[in-house]
Here is the input.
Amino acid sequence: MTESMPEPDTEAPYGRNAAGKPYSSARMAAAAAAKKGRPRGTATPPGKNSRPNKATSAVSTEQRAQAVFDALSIPVAGIAMAAQASGSQPLLADAIVIGKAAPALSIAIAQVADQDDRVARIVDSLVQTGPYAVLFTALMPVVLQIAANHSPRIAEATGMMGTKSPADIVAGATVKGEGTEDE
Here is the structure.
């Protein structure tokens, strides 16, 4: 005797939930299958890929926003440098647009992270990357300023990140030992 395969349910290719409603994706079906046997309302077992909710999270919205802002400075600098090397006006415009949008984007992404654990895991990893992030964050303004000193295009693209014109830097600093002091 051979058993025949059941006919596929064309209205529910990924299966149905306990109420008979079709799953909309394989991911939802897999999540439901993995959840079987767990208490109601528990998406993941404690300690496995779980993170405290916003109320108990040690990372504040402000910390997240600052981490995202710092991360956004990386593509701005890279795009600005690529624009300088290629003379590309569109690339320069891209760097300026990203740089000007960075503060609002940072806040918005941090607020999404407060509500969505998947986004929070990514953003929180930016907050807690350790001493290399601190080093990079300390080094980035120096690199950006040196690049801005040698290119008006880079200076324009990175100006909103605190770079100054070479003339402003020289005017703000004086040589020690010649009757004036360095600021």
Residues 14 and 24 are 7 Å apart (CA to CA). Residues 61-172 form one domain. Residues 89-115 form the longest helix (27 residues).
